[in-house]
Amino acid sequence: MKLNLTLSEFFSRVKGLKVIGSSSSFVDEVVYDSRKIISSKSQVFFALKGDFRDGHAFVENAYEKGVRLFVVQQMLELKSDACYVLVDDCLKSLQHLAKTHRAAFNIPVVAITGSSGKTTVKEWIYHLVKGQVHVTRSPKSYNSQLGVALSLLTINEETELALIEAGISEPGEMAVLADMIQPTIGILTNIGSAHSENFENRTQHLREKLDLFSRVLTIYSLEDYNDLALLNKNLEVITEKSMEKSIELLPFKDKASKNSAMLAIGFVERYFRLDVEKIKSLPRLALRLETFEGIDNSLIINDSYNLDLDSLKIALEYQLSISQGRERVALIGLNEDDQAVMKRVYEIINQFQPIDAHVYSGEIKLSTIQLKDSVILLKGQRAKQMEKLAQKLKLKHHKTQLAFNMTAIRHNLSIFKSKLASSTKILCMVKAQSYGVGLEKMGSFLEKCGADYLGVAYSDEGVELRKAGIKLPILVMNPEEDGYENCMAYNLEPAVYSQEQLEELISELIYLGAERMPIHLKIDTGMHRLGIKPEELSEVLEVIQAQPEVQLKGVYSHLAAADYPSNHLFTAQQIELFKSCVEQIQSYNSDVIFHLCNSEGALHFPSAQFDMIRVGIGLYGISKDPVISEQLKPVLEWKSVVSQVKEIPAGESVGYGRSYLVEKNTVIAIVPVGYADGFRRNLSNGKGAVYLKGQRCETVGRVCMDMIMVNTTGLDVKEGDEVEIIGEHQKIEQLAQAMETIPYEVLTSLSKRVYRTYFEE
Ligand SMILES: *Cc1c(COP(=O)(O)O)cnc(C)c1O
Q: Which of 118, 313, 431, 522 does the annotation list as catalytic?
């Protein structure tokens, strides 16, 4: 990005209110994440306010890294050699800058929107036209209010075609994107999710999407939306029939890929020269900067499907942001020994020193590279070879895998945040290995996302979090007697739930010589589990007041049935009882954090949010309330791979105890997942199912310790095919129901031996 603006030009483009200080250098590049700042000459830092992060808190950090120009919306302590542009709203200013930047180019700008497939369509158009025209496109899936602005700012003198993705999460946002993008051509991938679609819903979704296209000449889509009175637009429907020849050449057969390819090819055919060879080589998109554990305690980022220079920079930034001081290595494969490309690659990499970079056009030699403990980025033009390398570096585990979508967790947390007052804190419950996801991973991720507190069941879990470098305050709900020393040594905050335990704690603290240990008092308002009775409160408070060893930091209680509408009256009584305790305590001590609600409580009783809520299950996208469940995103995918396929003739039996007798010839697939992984035995003989090729395949015979057999008769299933246990077709809730339990138990009984990966979108 090179904007090449003088300060006064910049000032008017961001609708500045006031300049404080002066700057003589040109403004070239926008930065907003201080962790990603490398070189600072002519960069401008936008102090963006997000849900969790306020960029103003990072101005200092950006200054330390050398930035001297800042766009801010509130005044800060000023440095004499820096320049500040004060604006109303930093995001709006950035959007305005992007809009004026875009307007300066008279080129075709294609806006791509729809519920899914946007990134694929964009990347495939790029694949089909690169070499013919110079394309600027949104990096990764930068399609939000911020991402679109950043994408537009990458348009430059060379650009002959811009491909911009647009996605919205709230009504009304599309108009803002349209105003910025000013598209000349539209592509609509699809609308709404296929299953929950009714006519009204569809119309509404379409209206929102159409906001983007109010000024475009032609919209391309796969469906004829004329039935919905499309506002006199030139709609070109790309039909399967017209695309038959191209479809045959596709390297993928699934429907989603086919749809994306039809749009990309259809568009390219109309405006450019279509090279059919390129259809055969459309890349399988590894768009999520896949990150996994590698050999020698390394961490691998596999972004190897292409090497264009914009995405190289993004990948290096991502590597830097997750490296936490570990050594960074970049392995980059080039098609041929092209000196010019090699030079550009090194120029980009050199901005990220210190990094151990290896650019290859020949064979890749791992022996010379220090892999141990490093964070390794793989990127390259030679997709096959790079993929092989990725496999080689991958720590080998058995084929059943859990993949957690961290972006969805962040989204779910932001949904909670959006329903609370801005001063209300969020404690994230990470007990039981963070509901099976992984304690350390979740703890540090949630800290990064702006959680205020963490909660664990036992002090050992708190110790593990501290050893991982987590600084957030940590509540320990069951500090057993031998845990108090840990609480002290690792700065953990134990719960106090009875008078006896309080005394035990105090005498231990006297023995340890501790003072003012922060504690959270737990009151039983009707759950009838741990907790002091409200009538004991004044006595307990007196003890706490009198003992210098402890300090009352928080007071909490737990709702018994917040997720049952039929029990809302009972919940209201619990809230009232807690309120009366709050009043009583406040007369002693006004500096206490009061917290009552779990996930469902916070969602249904926002007026009972007090000073903090404690969320657990909601982070994983689960709620009994269907409206809320729509807003949250699922986090977990549980996948496996077919080990073997066989035909069983009628009359034979399958599995232990011969409990399944085959009535007519049946094809079964054997999948390496069993009750020792968390796939319960009660799912035997058709009570449970997995999905292959999007089709439900019921279990046949009993679930074994490490394996199941499923019925795949009539499906073209082969050894090595992917199996979905939880994912798009089977939600946790459905599997839980088949297991006759609740999603909490499904999550927490996922065995430790199942390999876990974490990705961000
Ligand atoms: C587990 C737990 C929570 C979190 O509950 P969710 O229903 O998962 O949101 C909150 N408070 C306490 C005391 C808990 O034990």
A: 431
Known catalytic residue at 656: yes
For residue 522, which atom of ligand 1 is closest to its CA?
13
* Nearest CA residue ID for atom 4, ligand 1: 616
How many angstroms does the Cα of residue 409 sit away from the middle of ligand 1? 16
Which positions of the chain have pLDDT values less than 70?
Answer: 1, 39-40, 51-52, 140-141, 192-202, 226-233, 253-254, 284-289, 305-306, 308, 310, 383, 396-398
Q: Are 110 and 186 in contact (CB under 8 A)?
A: yes
CATH 3.90.190.20 range(s) for the chain read: 298-393
pTM listed for this prediction: 0.60
To test ligand 1's pocket by mutation, which of 493, 556, 558 has the most ligand atoms within 8 angstroms of CB? 558
Q: Which atom of ligand 1 is nearest to the CA of 562?
A: 7
Alpha carbon separation from 198 to 134, 171, 203, 266, 599 (Å, rounded): 41, 18, 9, 28, 30
User: Looking at the domain that runs over 105-280, which CATH code has it been given?
Assistant: 3.40.1190.10
Nearest CA to ligand 1 atom 13: 558
State the catalytic residue, choosing from 346, 511, 564, 656: 656
The C-alpha atoms of residue 692 and residue 287 are separated, in whole angstroms, by 23
Q: How far apart are CA 470 and CA 246, in angstroms?
A: 53
Query: Is 484 one of the annotated active-site residues of the chain?
Result: no
| 3-class DSSP state of 540 | helix
Shortest-distance atom of ligand 1 to CA 435: 8
pLDDT in tens, 205-242: 777 777 888 778 788 888 877 655 555 667 888 888 88
Q: Where are the CATH 2.40.37.10 domain residues in the chain?
A: 636-730
Give start-end residues of each CATH 3.40.1190.10 domain in the chain.
105-280
For domain 298-393, which CATH number applies: 3.30.43.10, 3.30.360.10, 3.40.50.10540, 3.90.190.20? 3.90.190.20
In ligand 1, which atom is closest to the CA atom of 431?
Answer: 1
Q: Domain 405-626 carries which CATH code? A: 3.20.20.10
β-bridge mates for residue 392, sequence order? none
Sign of CA dihedral 540, 546, 549, 550: positive
Ligand 1 site residues (CB inside 6 A) read: 429, 431, 477, 558, 598-599, 614-618
Q: What is the 581 CA–ligand 1 centroid distance (Å)?
A: 20
Query: What is the pLDDT at residue 320?
Result: 86
Q: Where in the chain is the domain with CATH 3.20.20.10?
A: 405-626
Two tokens at 221? Answer: 């889509």
CATH superfamily, region 636-730 = Lyase, Ornithine Decarboxylase; Chain A, domain 1 (2.40.37.10)
Q: What is the CATH number of domain 7-91?
A: 3.40.1390.10
CA of 262 to the centre of ligand 1 (A): 47
For the chain, counts of helices (H) and of strands (E) = 25, 35
